[in-house]
Design a protein that fits this description.
8 helices; elongated; D-Maltodextrin-Binding Protein, domain 2; binds magnesium ion; 2 domains; binds phosphoribosyl ATP; alpha/beta
Length: 214
């Protein structure tokens, strides 16, 4: 029997993926939120899920340690992901990549006047491209999380981060001033696995696309 490994992260991606996996007949036998297991068996003896950090999903799939994966567009943009086949936008874990600043900061004027901005973000590649396209000079400061704190303590003038409800920005006296790109999660597939295991992988892809109505 062909073994299939699917990489995904716990939290919102696992929660939103579970109904799609179920549509493909795949049900995890453990809950990653309560179990400490990193390899989860499923109701199919030949299908397993591996639980990795969201930003590590493309790496596992790229090297073939997982055949399939589910990752946010934000993560894929940072990874580069040219060797990854991305057949489906699953339309889950949706949010927007945005520029945000303290609520009393006049971003438009700063940009208009050609000010050099210090921008804190986890998404260096996406941010660099965005500001280069706009012709705005920025000093990018790499952070690994809690970007919303940076402008509050004088580390940065602005941040580039994901926003869904906007309540994190609001709670930290920040406002979104620009959408960089809408984000959702994609199915990614290892190219060699798709060729070698097509008979097993294709029905999973078909079930996912039926489930999302594409
Ligand atoms: O948490 P960890 O450091 O392990 O990694 P991660 O943050 O990349 O993973 P996780 O599981 O938090 O997010 C996985 C994926 O979910 C991301 O790669 C996005 O594609 C997607 N997603 C969708 C989001 C959000 N919505 C989101 N709101 N990821 C993060 N957020 C954060 C955001 O960074 C901000 O701090 O939630 C906060 C804002 O939320 P609101 O609702 O207050 O606007
Ligand atoms: Mg997170």
């Amino acid at each position: 029997m062909t073994e299939i490994t699917i990489a995904l992260s716990k939290g919102r991606i696992f929660e939103d993926s579970a109904p799609l996996l179920k549509a493909a007949g795949i049900i995890a036998l453990d809950d990653p939120e309560t179990s400490r297991k990193l390899i989860l068996a499923t109701n199919h003896a030949n299908v397993r899920l591996i639980i990795v950090r969201a930003s590590d999903v493309p790496t596992y799939v790229q090297y073939g340690a997982a055949d399939l994966g589910i990752a946010g567009k934000d993560v894929l943009l940072e990874h580069g992901g040219t060797e990854l086949y991305q057949p489906l936008d699953l339309n889950i874990a949706r949010c927007r990549m945005m520029v945000a600043v303290p609520k009393d900061f006049d971003y438009e004027s700063a940009v208009f006047q050609g000010a050099r901005l210090r921008v804190a973000t986890k998404y260096l590649r996406t941010a660099r491209e965005h500001f280069a396209d706009k012709g705005v000079h920025v000093d990018l400061i790499k952070l690994y999380g809690s970007m919303e704190l940076a402008p509050l303590v004088g580390l940065a003038d602005a941040i580039v981060d994901l926003v869904s409800t906007g309540s994190t920005l609001k709670a930290n006296h920040l406002k979104a001033v620009e959408v960089i790109i809408p984000i959702s999660s994609r199915l990614i597939v290892n190219q060699a696995a798709l060729k070698l295991k097509r008979e097993t992988i294709q029905p999973i892809l078909d079930a996912f696309s039926n489930a999302i109505g594409k």
